[in-house]
C-alpha cells in the first residue's frame, strides 16, 4: 500500500524573537476552505500551522528519544533501502519510516540516500538538541515549498500567500518577476516568485536553517547523474522492459484508490494511462476539455469509445459563458499568482474531478521523459526558444534574457543543459499546475516513477524517441493503431512521407476553405488547438474588464511598466490577437494576486 499522508499544508516561522503574538494568526492562515482540519504546534523557537484532510494527520510524529520531530506532506511509493514497494500488499509503518529517515539519513547527514525514496513529498525535520530545522523535498519537487529569510527570521510554507500575508513579513511585489513572466511564457527563472524575498525550493533539495546562521541549501540529486544501465541493444527487449516498468509505475500509484480518473487529451501520455487502467477500474472516468470539435476532444472521445470508459467533455471557457473570466480569476489566489491566467484553463474541471475522483492519475511530463520533447535544448538559443522567450518591449530585453539564462547555465556542459531546462520548466510551471488539484484530491504522476525515469534516461535520445511510440503501438494497438496523435493529426510511427502529404492536404484545405464556403460547401476549418482565447475575450464585456484590471489608477502592473507601451500591448492583443497570450495572462495573475494580498494585509 502507498505510504500516504493527508497533511496538505504547512506554514512555519522559526525565529529567536518572541513569537507569542503570532500564535493565533498562524493558526488561521491556510485557506478559506472550511473542510480542511487545522491545527497549531509550538516548540521553543518553532511555530507551525498545519492543514489536513484528516484530524489525525496534523499531529507531529516524534522519534529518537524525544529529540526529533517530523512532519511529512505527501506520499511515498517505493523505498528499496527498507524493502518497501507500494505495488506489494505490505504497508510501511510510520514509526519504521520515521526512524529510517532520522537514523539513516538525517542524523548522519546522508542526504544522497534521499534520492532512493520515490514519492512526492515535503519532509520537515526539527532537532531540539541542535535547534536545527531541515526541509526536504522529492527529486522533482512535486509539492511546491516557499521560504524566506530576513533578520534571523525563517518563514516557510507550501503556500506563497500564507507567508506574504503575515503582518511581520516585509511584503513587496517582485517587479523583476513580473517582467520576466511577461517575456518567459508566463513564468520566472530560477527560484524567483512573484513576491520579493520569497523563493521556491529547488527540486531534490535539503534546506538547513539554524538560528544565528545563514540557511544552507544542499542539492542531493541531479538528473544528469542518473547511472547508465547496461541495457540490451535489441528494440524488442527494450520495449518489454519499458512496458514492465510502465505497468509497475501505474500499479504503485493506483493500488489504494477506489474511483480514480484522469483528464484525457488528444496526446499520447494520458492515453497511455488509460490503456493500462481501464480494465482494472470499470468505473474509470476520463474528462477532456476544449473548444467544440477540436482535435483534443475528438481524439479523446475516440479513445474513450475504444475502452468503454465513462467520458465527460467539459466545454472550454465554461461553454463560452459570459462569466468565464470571473470564474477563472477565482483560481489566481489558489495558484499563489504563480500560474499565468491563460494556463489556469487546466483548472476549469477541478470541481468535476473533486466530485468524481478519489485520485487523479496524470500524464505529467510524459512526453519529456518518454518522448524526448526537450532533447533539442542544447544551448542558450534553444533554451530561450523552448521556454519560450517573447521579445516584447514591456518586460526585459533579449540581452537581459540571454544574460539570465547564461547565469543559470554557468559551468554546464551541453548534455546537462537539457536538465537545467527540465528544472526551470518543471519547478516554475509544470508542478504549479497541480498545486490546486493536489489540495483537493490525490494527484499521482506515473511518468516520474524513479525506476521508469532512470530507465529512459539511460537511453540515447535516438533510441528513446523510437522506443516510447513503439511500446505504445505494440502493446496498446486499439488506442494507437488508428487514433491520431494530436501533434501531427496522424497515428504514431506514421512514415514521414505520409506526414508530409497530410501537411500538404491541410495547407490546401486552409487556403481553399474560404472559397469553398462561399460556393455553399459546408466546410469548417480544423480546430487543432483546444483553446480560443481571442473568441473568449470578445464575449460580453470581458475586454473592458481586462483593461480596467490592468490600466486602472491603482493597477500595480501599470505602476511597474511603461504606461504607454502597456496600453498599446494590451490593445494589440485584445483587438487583433497580436501579442503573446501568456504575457497578458502573467500580468492578470500578478495583478489579481497582489491586490488580494494588499486587501488581506489591511484586514490583519
TrEMBL record:
A biological process from GO: asparagine biosynthetic process
Origin: domain of life: Bacteria
Annotated Gene Ontology cellular component terms: cytosol
GO molecular function: asparagine synthase (glutamine-hydrolyzing) activity
Reactions accelerated catalytically: L-aspartate + L-glutamine + ATP + H2O = L-asparagine + L-glutamate + AMP + diphosphate + H(+)
Keywords (A to Z) from UniProt: Amino-acid biosynthesis, Asparagine biosynthesis
EC number in record: 6.3.5.4
Glutamine amidotransferase type-2 domain mapped to chain residues: 109-163
Broad class of enzyme this protein falls into: ligase
Gene3D superfamilies: Glutamine Phosphoribosylpyrophosphate, subunit 1, domain 1 (3.60.20.10), HUPs (3.40.50.620)
Pathway: Amino-acid biosynthesis; L-asparagine biosynthesis; L-asparagine from L-aspartate (L-Gln route): step 1/1
Name recorded for this polypeptide: asparagine synthase (glutamine-hydrolyzing)
Provenance organism: Prochlorothrix hollandica PCC 9006 = CALU 1027
Amino acid at each position: 500500500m502507498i505510504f500516504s499522508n493527508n497533511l496538505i499544508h504547512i506554514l512555519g516561522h522559526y525565529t529567536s524573537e518572541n513569537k507569542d503574538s503570532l500564535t493565533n494568526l498562524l493558526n488561521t492562515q491556510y485557506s478559506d476552505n472550511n473542510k480542511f482540519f487545522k491545527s497549531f504546534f509550538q516548540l521553543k523557537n518553532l511555530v507551525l500551522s498545519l492543514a489536513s484532510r484528516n484530524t489525525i494527520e496534523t499531529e507531529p510524529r516524534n522519534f529518537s528519544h524525544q529529540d526529533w520531530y517530523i512532519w511529512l506532506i505527501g506520499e511515498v511509493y517505493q523505498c528499496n533501502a527498507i524493502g518497501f514497494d507500494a505495488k506489494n500488499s505490505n504497508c510501511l509503518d510510520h514509526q519504521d519510516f520515521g526512524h529510517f529517515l532520522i537514523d539513516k539519513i538525517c542524523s548522519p547527514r546522508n542526504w544522497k540516500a534521499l534520492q532512493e525514496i520515490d514519492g512526492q513529498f515535503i519532509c520537515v525535520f526539527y532537532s531540539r538538541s541542535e535547534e536545527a530545522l531541515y526541509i526536504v523535498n522529492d527529486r522533482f519537487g512535486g509539492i511546491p515549498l516557499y521560504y524566506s529569510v530576513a533578520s534571523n527570521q525563517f518563514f516557510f510554507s507550501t503556500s506563497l500567500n500564507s507567508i506574504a500575508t503575515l503582518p511581520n513579513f516585509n511584503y513587496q511585489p517582485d517587479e523583476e518577476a513580473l517582467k520576466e513572466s511577461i517575456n518567459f511564457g508566463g513564468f520566472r527563472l530560477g527560484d524567483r516568485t512573484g513576491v520579493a524575498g520569497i523563493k521556491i525550493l529547488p527540486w531534490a533539495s535539503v534546506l538547513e536553517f539554524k538560528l544565528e546562521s545563514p540557511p544552507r541549501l544542499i542539492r542531493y540529486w541531479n538528473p544528469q547523474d542518473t547511472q547508465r544501465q547496461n541495457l540490451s541493444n535489441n528494440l524488442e527487449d527494450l520495449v518489454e522492459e519499458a512496458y514492465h516498468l510502465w505497468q509497475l509505475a501505474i500499479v504503485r500509484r493506483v493500488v489504494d484508490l477506489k474511483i480514480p480518473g484522469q483528464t484525457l487529451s488528444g496526446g499520447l501520455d494520458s492515453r497511455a494511462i488509460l490503456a493500462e487502467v481501464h480494465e482494472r477500474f470499470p468505473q474509470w472516468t476520463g474528462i477532456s476539455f476544449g473548444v467544440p470539435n477540436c482535435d483534443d476532444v475528438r481524439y479523446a472521445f475516440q479513445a474513450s469509445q475504444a475502452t468503454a470508459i465513462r467520458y465527460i467533455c467539459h466545454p472550454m471557457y465554461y461553454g463560452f459563458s459570459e462569466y468565464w473570466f470571473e470564474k477563472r480569476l477565482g483560481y489566481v489566489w489558489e495558484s499563489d499568482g504563480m500560474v499565468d491566467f491563460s494556463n489556469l484553463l487546466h483548472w476549469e474541471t477541478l470541481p468535476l474531478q473533486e466530485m468524481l475522483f478519489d485520485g487523479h492519475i496524470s500524464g505529467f511530463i510524459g512526453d519529456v521523459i518518454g518522448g524526448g520533447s526537450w532533447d533539442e535544448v542544447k544551448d542558450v538559443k534553444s533554451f530561450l526558444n523552448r521556454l519560450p522567450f517573447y521579445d516584447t518591449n514591456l518586460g526585459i530585453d533579449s540581452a537581459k534574457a540571454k544574460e539570465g539564462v547564461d547565469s543559470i547555465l554557468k559551468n554546464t556542459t551541453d548534455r546537462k543543459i537539457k536538465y537545467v531546462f527540465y528544472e526551470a520548466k518543471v519547478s516554475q510551471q509544470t508542478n504549479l499546475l497541480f498545486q490546486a488539484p493536489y489540495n483537493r484530491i490525490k494527484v499521482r504522476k506515473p511518468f516520474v516513477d524513479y525506476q521508469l525515469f532512470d530507465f529512459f534516461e539511460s537511453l540515447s535520445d535516438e533510441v528513446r524517441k523510437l522506443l516510447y511510440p513503439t511500446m505504445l503501438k505494440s502493446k496498446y494497438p486499439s488506442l494507437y493503431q488508428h487514433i491520431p496523435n494530436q501533434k501531427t493529426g496522424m497515428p504514431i510511427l506514421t512514415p514521414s512521407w505520409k506526414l508530409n502529404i497530410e501537411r500538404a492536404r491541410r495547407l490546401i484545405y486552409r487556403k481553399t476553405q474560404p472559397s469553398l464556403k462561399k460556393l455553399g460547401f459546408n466546410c469548417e476549418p480544423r480546430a487543432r488547438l483546444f483553446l480560443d482565447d481571442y473568441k473568449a475575450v470578445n464575449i460580453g464585456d470581458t475586454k473592458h474588464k481586462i483593461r480596467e484590471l490592468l490600466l486602472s489608477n491603482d493597477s500595480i502592473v501599470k505602476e511597474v511598466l511603461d504606461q504607454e507601451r502597456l496600453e498599446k500591448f494590451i490593445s494589440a492583443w485584445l483587438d487583433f490577437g497580436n501579442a503573446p497570450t501568456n504575457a497578458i495572462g502573467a500580468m492578470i495573475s500578478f495583478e489579481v494576486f497582489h491586490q488580494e494580498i494588499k486587501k488581506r494585509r489591511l484586514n490583519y
